[in-house]
């Protein structure tokens, strides 16, 4: 009897470890779908579809939270484009600056949408350093490509807008808007759209991200097959599953803005 109990416990432990490993891989280690290393390594054929590169960090990679790049890829009205996901978990503006040539320019993009800076805010990267990195990224793209470029403002951190981290984030969003204006590239008001939906309803949860929370919501999605919207609602949130990453409703704001931007670009060609 004792031997059976030990065997049963060992089996349970093995299942738990396997589940933990699977969630860890799918969430944190798995590359984005249609990443630059997969798509752009062999150049660009003249007869290929125009490429749209989405560049950023985990919100763009879409393995923790909704994959808004994949949502765009699935839309019938944008089948003329090939979407490349140049999002990497944990990236800051400095990381994207280091890989702009390999992961964006090398793809020969027709359009580039950039959402970067959340980790700069979270990590306390000085605003001047962030501004310098973002400006260098745009200058590099303008000198090396003819792509149409859009900068996105950063979503709130936590759904309570009146917190210290969101007041700090406002300075980064001001820098994004300023750089877009200076460089004469497009600006997509992601933060503004989400903030407009959050303000009418008080009592929102303040920022409280942690890696255990991120792992827990990922386990609910990948093991229990719950949607990101269901997970967000269960945690008392609407647009953010873990105070940072996007539910389906949150990602729909980015998808809608980017879809409209691409449609406008198509109509002006």
TrEMBL record:
Gene3D superfamilies on file: SGNH hydrolase
A GO MF term: hydrolase activity
Organism ancestry: Bacteria, Bacillati, Actinomycetota, Actinomycetes, Streptosporangiales
Protein name, entry field: SGNH/GDSL hydrolase family protein
Keyword Ribosomal protein assigned: no
Cross-referenced Pfam families: Lipase_GDSL_2 (PF13472)
Entries under InterPro entries matching the protein: Ester_Hydrolysis_Enzymes (IPR051532), SGNH_hydro (IPR013830), SGNH_hydro_sf (IPR036514)
Domain SGNH hydrolase-type esterase: start-end pairs: 55-212
Entry keywords, A to Z: Hydrolase
